[in-house]
Design a protein that fits this description.
4-stranded antiparallel β-sheet; 10-stranded mixed β-sheet; alpha/beta; 7 helices
């Protein structure tokens, strides 16, 4: 019983550290971190952890060398570090503070319907499930069959969460309040925009491959889109390094995205245009059905 209390104390301490250090405004996000048992979504310990500033997603950054915890005490996982799910494949459960900032930015609330693309083994899907509560719903989507099976098993205690195998490009439910794309894409899909309810929010990292970087990783900026009836407001939120979205990336579109990023005009982006129009000076990244516009 004492060990359980110590683990619960460690969870609460991590949640409070993240709240203060990263200015998380949502009490529900902090309560989720303080409540959901992270070790349930990881392989058995000892765990390989990656300290320092981890860029994003499930993958470690170069700031610190991986190290193994001295034992299987679950308190080890309640640090703001990335923890290996499968180190041989570079699969990590990323820093909680990074994703907490995304969940806070998206203003996820009780009763919301959420799609989480890139659910991994389910820890961050469980945090979202805790936030939306029993009146909400979370659809976790994972392209890796083994990870999808693990997530489905791990999330058995969260009846508001379901897991689907796929890449998130089709078959999405309608009237969704929040879509979180937990991997780097070269472009925005019509399917994501179409699935949003009025006032719905979409967060997607728009990324490109960089010389010298692992082929599984890409670098770019996080774009947040809010639907206002038939208008889509947009703004870039922060830089990101993250695992690349599988099965959706388009190299021709990645080339165009690279050119737009090199312009250094991220902060001018204001909306998404979906009507047919010719390329104009206000088109930050022009597309036939989705245009990121100034």
């Amino acid at each position: 019983m004492a060990e359980i209390l110590k683990t619960a104390d460690a969870r609460r301490a991590l949640a409070e550290e993240i709240r203060v250090a990263h200015n998380i405004q949502s009490p529900r996000v902090i309560d989720a971190i303080a409540t959901v048992p992270r070790e349930q979504f990881l392989p058995p310990g000892p765990w390989q952890i990656q300290g320092g500033e981890i860029p994003a997603g499930f993958f470690p950054g170069p700031a610190a060398q991986p190290r193994l915890t001295e034992d299987s005490d679950p308190r080890h996982v309640y640090q703001d570090v990335s923890i290996a799910i499968d180190a041989s494949r570079g699969l990590y459960n990323g820093q909680p503070s990074f994703i907490a900032a995304w969940l806070d930015l998206l203003k996820i609330g009780e009763g919301n319907r959420v799609v989480h693309i890139g659910t991994g083994t389910g820890y961050y899907t469980a945090l979202i499930a805790h936030i939306v509560g029993r009146s909400g719903m979370v659809h976790g989507i994972e392209i890796d069959p083994a990870l999808a099976r693990a997530a489905q098993k791990n999330l058995a205690g969260w009846p508001m969460a379901t897991v689907h195998e796929g890449n998130g490009s089709s078959g999405l439910p309608s009237d969704i309040d929040v879509i979180l794309v937990h991997a780097g894409s070269t472009h925005i899909l019509d399917a994501w925009l179409d699935a949003l309810a009025d006032a719905g929010r979409l967060l997607v990292p728009l990324t490109v491959s960089m010389p010298g970087m692992s082929s599984t990783l890409s670098k770019g900026m996080v774009l947040v889109i809010t639907r206002n009836k038939d208008n889509w407001e947009a703004r870039f939120a922060s830089p990101v390094v993250i695992y690349s979205l599988q099965g959706i990336r388009d190299e021709a579109k990645a080339h165009a995205l690279t050119k737009s990023m090199m312009s250094g005009t991220f902060m001018k982006v204001r909306r998404i245009r979906r009507e047919a129009h010719e390329l104009a000076p206000t088109c930050w990244l022009h597309g036939s059905t989705v245009c990121i516009s100034e």
